Automatic annotation (TrEMBL):
Source organism per UniProt: Dawidia soli
Homology family: Belongs to the sulfatase family.
GO molecular function annotations of the record: hydrolase activity
Membrane spanning stretches: none
Gene3D superfamilies named among the record's database cross-references: 3.30.1120.10, Alkaline Phosphatase, subunit A (3.40.720.10)
Pfam family, any one: Sulfatase
Residue intervals of the Sulfatase N-terminal domain: 46-411
Name of the protein described by the UniProt record: Arylsulfatase
Signal peptide, first to last residue: 1-35
Keyword annotations: Hydrolase, Signal
Length: 520
């Protein structure tokens, strides 16, 4: 690690007069000029790690108010870095948020939605991406964990190399779940190839209809019961969405995720010796099915959901400890955040509702995953960089859409040509307390934030009644909604009728952004 140059003050203790003074300083100047070191080079580009947790709510970790689960490693990042109170993922669901973070584009521009496990690649390989930008800036790049952004260009043959995928959008290395844990295929894919695939036992996947030899789901053989949507194919005692046969030697074991992903992440860090690195550590936790390793079962009072949060904390601690051991910590920038708000009942009977106790996953905010209300996208967000970032709590308005432009500014990459991503590096580093002036929150409808104000535009589609069954407040209405979050963070009092001019102005601002105009 490079040390900063030191300077010293020279005191002239003797008094001189006239020509003696002039001669003394002339000699001194010559000596200093002859002995001066060349101007030190700029600090090395930092390593960058994004810890991207799945379905982690605003108050699901200790430093944001969690009850019933301890997160000491995450809390340490917050205590030493910047903890944000008004930072947002791109959307209230997984795939759109991941698309927005990696492309710097609002997901609605590509009609991004939750994908099936056999969907084609959602990201246009011609578009600039966060990993692609960093690779051009001299970084070696990797993604480990959950993907859920599709791969290939059509019907996927899982028995051969699958492209395009993560490697074609800027990642030098990828080790992934193709979609997510509750969907088939239940295999790891490394650099486009299924790991441990047996050619004599080929994989077949179908999301439309059952396959021959698909075994019926018997609830008495499952580790946990599931709803009908999640009851197609059983792997590792867990039923999943979609039909799959074959590939038995390649099947994952859910409980091993944290150890498998850490092994791959640490191997990547070990191998990134000559360049700065970017690691997108994309957790499966705390998404369903929640299957924590035996080491974490019972670590919380919240059941498997809380135990999975404790498991996330352990993973963070292991990676940070490795950075410190290798002397990399001081010059590593970590962003810890989530892809959307919390959900308790999401298809499996894992006691998340029954064991919630006094824990409130969304904190003071209404809604959660899928919801247009604030807890849908307002997520825990921490930035840690020992060499550059000082501890503070920031109320700046931020969106993950801006990570592309902001990190481009950090590494002095060419300016980003992107209609949505803005450079708010100073806010991300805790130096600017304002951040965004205007931004969009995506759910089943669009909302716009401007300072204390939030406007949810009318929703004209069919109401998703399945969210009512899961006791999720969707926040959808056929009329506009206006909230003053400074005085009403729980979005209980709709002011659109009382303040029609403000509501109308924000609807026009939203329309302008959708039409492709920069929000200024």
């Amino acid at each position: 690690m490079k040390t900063r140059p030191t300077t010293s003050n020279t005191s002239v203790l003797s008094r001189t007069t006239g020509r003696t003074t002039v001669l003394f300083f002339a000699v001194l100047t010559a000596l200093v000029a002859g002995c001066a070191s060349p101007t030190p080079p700029p600090a090395a580009k930092p390593n960058i790690i994004v810890f991207y947790v799945d379905d982690l709510g605003y108050a699901d970790v200790g430093c944001y108010g969690a009850v019933g689960v301890a997160t000491p490693h995450i809390d340490t990042l917050a205590r030493q870095g910047v903890r944000f109170t008004d930072a947002h993922c791109g959307a209230a669901t997984c795939t759109p948020s991941r698309y927005s973070l990696l492309t710097g584009r609002y997901a609605f521009r590509n009609k991004a939605a939750i994908l099936p496990g056999d969907a084609p690649l959602l990201i246009d390989t011609a578009h600039q991406t966060l990993p692609g930008m960093l690779r051009e800036a001299g970084y070696t790049t990797a993604v480990v964990g959950k993907w859920h952004l599709g791969r290939g260009r059509g019907k996927i043959d899982w028995n051969h190399h699958i492209a395009p995928g993560a490697n074609e959008v800027g990642f030098d290395y990828s080790f992934l779940l193709p979609a997510t844990g509750d969907r088939v295929p239940t295999v790891y894919v490394e650099n486009g190839n299924v790991v441990n695939l047996d050619p004599a036992d080929p994989i077949t996947v179908n999301y439309q209809q059952p396959l021959e030899e698909t075994e019926p789901v018997h609830s008495d053989s499952l580790k946990m019961k599931a709803d009908p949507q999640h009851s197609n194919t059983v792997v590792n005692g867990v039923s999943r969405i979609g039909f799959m046969k074959g590939g038995r030697r390649a099947h994952w074991v859910d409980e091993d995720f944290p150890h498998v992903f850490n092994e791959k992440a640490l191997a990547f860090i070990d191998g990134a010796r000559d360049k700065p690195f970017f690691l997108f550590y994309s957790f499966h936790d705390i998404h369903v099915p929640r299957m924590p390793h035996a080491d974490f079962v019972g670590k919380s009072t919240l059941g498997p959901r809380g135990d999975a949060i404790a498991q996330v904390d352990w993973v963070v601690g292991q990676i940070v400890a490795a950075l410190k051991q290798k002397g990399l910590a001081d010059n590593t920038l970590i962003v810890f955040t989530s892809d959307n708000g919390p959900v308790l009942d999401d298809g499996y009977e894992d006691q998340a509702v029954q064991r919630i106790g006094n824990h409130v996953p969304g904190g003071a905010f209404r809604g959660g995953k899928y919801s247009a209300y604030e807890a849908g996208t307002r997520v825990p967000t921490i930035v840690w960089w020992p060499a550059q970032v000082k501890h503070r709590v920031s109320h700046a308005l931020l969106t993950q859409v801006d990570l592309l432009a902001s990190l481009a500014a950090l590494v002095h990459a060419p300016s980003v040509q992107n209609i949505d991503s803005e450079d708010h590096l100073n806010a991300w580093l805790g130096q600017d307390t304002t951040g965004r002036r205007v931004m969009i929150e995506e759910s089943f409808t669009l909302s716009v934030r401007e300072g204390r104000w939030k406007y949810i535009q009318p929703f004209n589609g069919p109401m998703p009644t399945w969210m009512d069954n899961k006791k999720i407040e969707h926040g959808l209405s056929n009329t506009g909604q206006l909230y003053d979050l400074e005085h009403d963070p729980g979005e209980k009092q709709n002011l659109a009728g009382k303040l029609p001019e403000q509501a109308g102005r924000m609807q026009r601002a939203l329309d302008a952004i959708v039409a492709g105009q920069k929000a200024r």
